């Protein structure tokens, strides 16, 4: 996958097992045999990518919830989203 942009569409990999733990997500990739944990913002993102969503729409949701500037938001979540893509936790198109 090339570098993500605001027009990239992402969604959860449906094969990932998830559970809530004190308001945060804990996930397991059966394929990789690895566990992952998400903090508050990561959990917010995960909760909102069950269905395909453009990153620009996700940025809009985050900036409304956390009162941050859109460019800063995109810069800060880009590496996180790329990490999720690399670990095959989400799918990007």
**Known CATH architecture:** Orthogonal Bundle
Secondary structure: helix percent: 25-40%
CATH superfamily: Coenzyme PQQ synthesis protein D (PqqD)
How many structural domains in the coordinates? Answer: 1
User: On the 0-100 scale, what is the average pLDDT?
Assistant: 93
- Give the structural class: alpha+beta
Order of helices and strands: EEEEHEHHE
Radius of gyration computed on alpha carbons: 13 Å
Output the CATH topology: Arc Repressor Mutant, subunit A
Q: Uncertain runs with pLDDT below 50, 5 residues or more? A: none
**How many beta strands in the DSSP annotation?**
6
User: Which CATH class applies here?
Assistant: Mainly Alpha
Secondary structure tally, helices: 3
């Amino acid at each position: 996958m090339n570098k993500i942009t605001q027009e990239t569409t992402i969604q959860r990999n449906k094969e990932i097992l998830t559970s809530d733990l004190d308001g945060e997500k804990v996930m397991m990739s059966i394929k990789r045999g690895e566990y992952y944990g998400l903090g508050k913002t990561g959990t917010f993102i995960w909760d909102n990518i069950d269905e395909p969503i453009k990153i620009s729409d996700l940025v809009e949701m985050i900036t409304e919830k956390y009162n941050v500037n859109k460019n800063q938001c995109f810069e800060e979540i880009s590496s996180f989203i790329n990490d999720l893509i690399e670990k095959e936790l989400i799918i990007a198109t």
